[in-house]
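EI: anyone free to look at a 747-residue chain?
SC: sure, send it
EI:
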Amino acid sequence: MQNRFGDRFKTTTLAQAFGWTLAACAAMPLGAAQAADATAAASDSSAEPVLKSVTVTATRREESLQKVPVAVTVLDGEQLGRENRTSIESIVQQIPTVNFRTGASNKDTSLFVRGVGTISTSPGVEPTVATVVDGVVYGRPGMATLDLLDLERIEVLRGPQGTLFGKNASAGVLNITTKAPTDETHGYVEQSYYQGNESRTRFGIGGTLIPGTLKGNLTALVSDYDGNVHNKTNGQTLNGYNRKGARGKLEFTPNDDFKLTLSADYMNSASDAPNGVISSSTLASFGSALSPVTASSHNRDIASDYRTHVNDYNKGLSAQADWNLGDYTLTSITAWRGWNNDQWQDADHLANISATYPGIDDRGTLNYDQYSQEFRIASPKGEFMEYVAGLYYMHARDKETYERTLITPTATNDGIANYGTTSDSVAAFGENTFNFTSTFRGIAGLRWTHDRLSYDHERTSTSVVAVNGINPSTSSSGDTDAHGWSGRLGFQYDLSDNVTSYLTYSRGYKGPAYNVFFNMQPRDTQALKPETSNTWELGVKASSWNNRLTTNLAVFHSEYQNYQANFYDTVANQVVTRLINAGTVSTEGVEGDWALQATRNLKLSGSFAYTHARVDEFSCPAGAAASCNVNGNALPFSPDWKTYVRADYDIPLDNGMDIELGTDYNWQSKVQYDISQAAGTTQGAYGIWNGSIALADYGSGWRVSLEGKNLLNKSYSPLLATGTGYVYRAVPRDDQRYFGIQVRKDF
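SC: here you go
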């Protein structure tokens, strides 16, 4: 186990880093966690304005954000809804330490925290960043990329969180909490409309059903968007969606010592994001075949004869029981989640077929089920030893079919692959806080995890030799199992009543993997080794100016061994992503976030991150088609610098109404999207500026807002990737300036 610091930190002692952290925290003119904190708590106009206290569950029990010894960013669900940031993809602009890999299908998406994440379409690999919704871990990353209904808050826990959150948490956790039912009956209707014919309708109602015993809530959503990409072949507008879904909760409390919460959710999404828009042509012949579309860095046109689209169904049931056993709390979470995903993709990106550029049409289906059970006990607070301990089990099964049709002027070839995985994960975990004094605490946590993973794969092809994008028939199966340890050690010291500091060491673990995909070959049948990491983190959290200002700062260094990553390779004359143990990588940097209630009406907030994420020693796979000379280069989807700032100003009117002004700006430095550092896959530095103005009468329960997105009209690409003879880009929703209106009525 290596504990060395990277080159940048080798000559720096922890004492020096601690001093730098304190000095930087004291020097910051503004401070705090995030925009959600910047809401004044006092309604009394004569009281001094303060920031609202934020409670998080980052340690599996409720604690103040400013006291918890973990680097956490919190986003308020109501504020996200007002800004039309309703999916994980849309929130990354607000969190400098988080980045998102998009794709034509949400099945192909993934999250990155501090520069580390897993890019793979294989069902045989876990994501590096866990997504947890109301205590339930989502086994596949694509399950959590649709609309997030009825949000209370999103907590982004940075760095390994494997001790308490376990599965898929070796780089970080998105801990999502939805709204709990309230005693008071309440409902709302909300309608939004944006340029591009985007409409979003939400309805919610909740309250007491049986006084003192049963309460519930229900939220429903219908939304659609035409898109911002144009198909020159048939005149269709693409890159849009049509979604509908609902989430409901019932909370049963027969007595003061027991609470049972039943949750159910369903979301259906039909989207038609194209399989990439050509941004540059590396072969003149491909550029000619692309006509009448002209490739460029801001291109939003395609020429396609096969409509790329996805139908996605996501649903789940869970039951959480909480017992008060004296001063102890026992929690049980039982959950099932189902996921069905059908996708059609135009893999050749062209409308006209030829011997040089044949037509390649793909179709894939995915059926996934997971069952999980967690038991957790929390000791009372205020004792010398405070602990959370538990047991966890998840069983998941994935079955997929992928079909590729190759069309040339003289022949048609087909390949069909049926494959799937079965996984079981068992864990025991616990974390203790030792209160040595009222200001000095020790932290010790440990988790043991045992994973078992098996796969089966069978591909048939009408060709006995490899043809463009289709390998010959083959079949294989395999199974593996492994166990690993993760944990956390550290100390927390309160420098004053309003300033706390902490130093922690965390061990991360991610289980074994298989590279299971359509064009799987004999070289892919060996299991990948588990991925492990070692992370040091030093942090300071401060509140000052009578709780009008908070400033948080963290310095970190992480090293990953047997890093599981996708490497672009060529299979059957087609560029594909190939999952490998890529070797060792490291990431280190400084993060800060702040919030300031400058006056009663003016709120300022923001955050920044410097992340130096690099490949230390790349393990080149046998027969690799791409360059392996990548040591010292940046990890994909990891800009060195990323910042976010926000200002909100409220103007009270004499008639009881308010005018609310809001603006935010996010900026990031250049980012490389390809671990092999391919030409044309680097997005230059860019910034996005948004603004809004609203008129509200909260006494009467209504609010109307006008919003402007990407006011500087900056085109950018959240994904750049290579194909045979070209580079393609993903087109974001805010690739150009647009405006919208949102109307809400509470009752």
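EI: Residues 14-359+375-746 form a domain with the Maltoporin; Chain A fold (CATH 2.40.170.20).
SC: 👍
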